[in-house]
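Limitations

Structures in this collection are predictions, not experimental determinations, and the ligand pose is part of the prediction. Treat each record accordingly. The example that follows, with fe (ii) ion as the small molecule, is included so readers can see exactly what is and is not provided: the inputs are given verbatim, and the output is the predicted complex.
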Amino acid sequence: MDIRGIDHIELYVGDARQAAFYFGTAVGFTLLGQGGPETGLVGQRSLLLGQGDIRMVLTTGLTADHPASGYVARHGDGIAVVAVEVGDAAGAYAELVARGATSVTPPRTWTGADAEVVTAEVGGFGDVLHRLVERRGDRGDFLPGAIEATPAGGGTDERLLAEIDHLAVCVPPGQLDDTVAHYERVFGFAQIFEEHIEVAGQAMNSKVVQDTSGRVTLVLLEPDAGRRPGQIDAFLTEHHGAGVQHLGLRTDDIVGAVGALGARGVRFAGTPAAYYDDLEQRVGKVDAPLDRLRDLSILVDADHGGQLLQIFTESMHVRRTLFLELIERRGARTFGSGNIRALYEAKERELAVAGATPAVAAGTARGAGA
Ligand code: FE2
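Predicted complex:
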């Protein structure tokens, strides 16, 4: 099976139009197309957004029995499909099912005037599916016949964000090794990174798996059940099981992107000013103004290949589950040893601040998280 990279992701959301307004207005995505019952997408409305090489489908179920409705009822808004491009979708589907993947949707061909797309779906982790996508002809025709292209001019057409870098996935305690083994055995991924992190009496295990093309990367996170419950436990409780905690989006200019998105209302996790005092002792000379990085709370880490700059948004969801990461790679191809710890600590600070704000509890019995 030749995986060529992530084709797109699909979010199941309560209201695709409102979610599209957020991702468009705040995060710089452009509306590229849409479909619904009138295009043969029974019981759903789907909007296609794009920015750089990122393609994101936002789908809302229009009937109670549509899978998107059930997903949102269980998990709230979230990433439900991680689609990968393959050379032969029907062949890949047969191969994966033979190796033990759960069959969800057998191969189906979508035919247009200048393009043909074959899709099939198998189970991934939790309620998240993997869609296999084979494209022939015009690559601009996303799903021939089902998603109609929107006339140009519907968005900002920027390229603040270039492509999907990785997805971070929380799994329940005890399931990390099984999940890694599943991706190795069924999907042919390899484990490329492993870390145990302890912060303030909490702990988690992380393992990173990647396909042979190096273009599909899953950062798997599991809470250490022997320690004080922390944010991974909170995610699993609020999300009701395994799921995508954050989406890592690569940018060519993180300083420009964070400035632009912040000006439009995207809220980023803060970083203590002291973090920058000995930054260059930890990661070496940084080719960016440190005061600008400090102003924007951008984190810097390094691996053997070079540096990476990153920042995490606060969650945009009421359950405080899914959030975004912006990452600029300057030679680093993996994750620095401080990367996952930095995220963990930043998220702890966000939750601590939110928990101390009385307004968060207004109108709901639900607390702001652990
Ligand atoms: Fe990440």
